[in-house]
Write the structure tokens for this entry.
Amino acid sequence: MLVRASRPPNVAFVLPGLGAGGSEHIVSLLCNHCAAQGWAVTLIAFEDPSTAPYYPHHSDVRIIRLGMKSRRRAAASGMLAMVRRLQLLKQALKRVRPELVVSFLTRTNILSVLAARPLGIPVIVSERNNPALQRVGPIWDRLRRMTYPRAVGLVTMTQGAMDWFTAAMDVKGWVIPNPVPPAIGLAERRPEGRIIGAVGRLVPQKGFDLLLAAFARAAPRIPDWKLVIWGEGPERAALERQRDRLGLAERVSLPGVTRHPGEWIGETDLFVLSSRYEGWGIVVGEAMGAGLPVIAFDCQWGPAEMIEHGVSGLLVANGDSAALGDAVASLCNDAPRRMALGDGARRRMATFGHDQVLARWQSVIVAVLDHHRVRVGS
């Protein structure tokens, strides 16, 4: 049962941008869910106002773009940019006057706490990656240790991430996995489908270099199969060079970001997650929810919490590209097993249903709001 506040809440969600990433996806789902409940919802992003959101938003969601998206800078200019972003966010919060801020991703979380706390606005921060392996830099790490204890709570997607934070700093919080969106249903099987799909930003974390090595090992055994890696990022040129060096130019494509969310699902017959580490592995859940067979590195954290090895997918020792290649070749040559794992994947994802997960988010937000209202006497 959904928990409701004593009066419609006024909540602001804050994140860096409105692109095609996993954090942007969950924020769009949360904004739409809350707006449908009759809440006043504002979405604040640091990106340029000319950028169109990748994910759809409810017509009642107010979107504010601050025009100063975070990017790598030299130390001095980076500090000035941080101060400017802090000022812009604080000005936006003064205009909106939300009762609660819900912020996503480390640097944005820090800025949200620094901007909202002086205004008396409580903040929930949410981390969406593996804090043990994702490096934020010494300055941001110190700021995180200073600001997170001042937030009313932290949301992570896995218990492993929460354990890391509670051991490193004085925080309390909630573990809420990512939902499988309702729009992603059973993928239609193309009669002669032979596509291995992977999705993610083209960065070292996603391990697409390891996936190319794995596919090179498997390729002679699966001559009718091709690999498609959807996404964009700074590693594109290096990955294309590796692909060509391996002699896979005719069998591996990198078409960029799909035009529409989840469009890759209908083009995929077997999904592979090759990440070195993850916060959850959102695309794994999307693939499994669509009934696709999945192979994933058993990286920290997320895949092992979704996949029951041999029942709803396959887990491979993290970073072992040879083992990944062997698993890919074996599964590509075993259609009945692909179908069985896809069926098991779809059943498993019922545990992470859209309505159940968003209800958990709503319950947390309402509990924080009710406590804040009592404290301030409103």
In short: The longest helix spans residues 354-376.
